[in-house]
Amino acid sequence: MSDAQTLTIADLDVAEIEAAVALWEACGLTRPWNDPRADVRLALAGETSTILAGHAGGRLVATAMVGADGHRGWVYYLAVAPDRRGQRHGEAMMRAAEAWARARGMPKLQLMVRADNAEVVSFYNAIGYEIEDRTVMSKRFGTAASRQED
Description:
150 residues, alpha+beta, 5-stranded mixed sheet, 5 strands
């Protein structure tokens, strides 16, 4: 890979919050009822979470928000810039998320994919993830009654 394609991964710097949100928006990951900036701040402030940032060619081109709940690791906001897809950056970010979870003693890494997102399901299948027979349930707090689903 050329230097412009080489991906380096480290924790997201606070100065990159707007770049991360712009990347998530470009990848269609944000929803109007969720505040991605609040998600970033919460992940970066937590002792059991962070956002991994992938840089190539001097810019932020990939992210993965990771957290550990004490029983398993979770990943959210996996994003790869549209012009960087097909270069295995998504797989590299997931391997970094796996390493992050393993380093914290988590025996498993989980994620959620919208049921109608077959392309993303195929990506995760290709790198070793399986669909599990689970029902995800949630309860919103505050003004959640007016929100849509995540």
